[in-house]
Design a protein that fits this description.
Oligomer: single chain
Strand order of the largest sheet: 1-2-3-4-5-6-9
Structural class: alpha+beta
Shape: globular
Distance between the termini: 52 Å
Strand content: 25-35%
Helix content: 40-55%
Number of strands: 9
């Protein structure tokens, strides 16, 4: 850790931005294929953090498309931030076994976060993120992707999981079963007694001792996203739907919002460390319903 991982940090940050550019272009191409109103386009907003002394503490790029032909709301955000963790974050890191947090609470984090809420209720919502985290005593990767249909099609679920399994298997035969089980546990909504979707993979604290291998796996997760998701969009986007399907969608979005506001670690970390609230809460659906 003596060199503070400057070259590794730069490589990870650049990759997350590259992945963001690739996904944004692919989603706008999906919008172009539709008919009717003008295709949706991402609105870009730079986000900035400021340290207590007024110096820069990093920032990022918030990219949000609203009211498109296919996407009702989708955000693809990237950020690279740094500073000192507050007391609650230090305690949480120490509880997870991160060494040295009490004596040196500096951190650096970079990542991409994506959430898509769709116009057609037959097209599943989706979430993906990958990230790198550094402290003076440790560094690690985390991330994953999970599918959130309000109307499930088993063949869609199978395709999504198979693409993630292939990505995992290229790096370790243990990764997919381990990270699938982790996702099943992590994306569970205790107060509703159910999962928020049909799962995917989730991993955190990935630090095998081979940084390059861990980074390669994290890139593979990001690269698997479009092949896992876009075929489902193309398959379902033209299906007819009405008020009953919309009602089902809005109620399911309520479940999604509950999870993200109550349990999601990324939401809590972003708000506690002073990141732009609009960027942190980008994951929330434009409309939802509770009954």
């Amino acid at each position: 850790m003596a060199n503070e991982f400057e070259s590794e940090k730069a490589a990870a940050s650049a990759w997350f931005r590259t992945l963001r550019d690739r996904i944004v272009a692919a989603f706008e191409a999906v919008e172009d294929e539709g008919a009717g109103a003008a295709p949706g386009r991402f609105e870009l907003t730079e986000t900035r953090r400021t340290a207590p002394d007024g110096s820069s503490a990093g920032g990022g790029l918030m990219s949000v498309l609203r009211g498109g032909r296919v996407f009702e709301k989708v955000g693809v955000n990237v950020s690279t931030v740094w500073g000192q963790l507050g007391g609650r974050a230090v305690a949480a890191m120490a509880a997870r076994g991160v060494p040295g947090m009490d004596s040196d609470p500096r951190f650096w984090a970079s990542g991409i976060s994506l959430v898509a809420h769709m116009q057609n209720p037959h097209v599943p919502a989706v979430h993906m993120n990958t990230r790198m985290f550094w402290t003076p005593g440790a560094s690690w990767f985390g991330g994953g992707a999970d599918l959130n249909p309000c109307i499930e099609y088993p063949e869609d679920t199978a395709h999504f999981h198979e693409q993630l399994r292939i990505a995992c298997a290229a790096h370790s035969p243990e990764y997919y079963p381990r990270f699938k089980a982790w996702a099943d546990e992590y994306f569970f909504v205790p107060h509703r007694g159910r999962a928020r979707g049909v799962g995917g993979i989730f991993y955190d604290d990935l630090a095998s001792g081979d940084w390059s291998a861990d980074f390669a796996f994290t890139r593979a997760v990001g690269e698997a996203f479009l092949p896992a998701y876009l075929p489902l969009v193309q398959r379902r986007r033209g299906l007819e739907w009405g008020e009953a399907e919309r009602e089902t969608q809005l109620i399911h979005r309520g479940l999604y919002a509950e999870y993200n506001l109550v349990y999601d670690r990324g939401t809590k970390f972003g708000l506690e460390t002073g990141h732009d609230a609009n960027a942190v809460l980008m994951s929330l659906p434009p409309l939802a319903k509770w009954v």
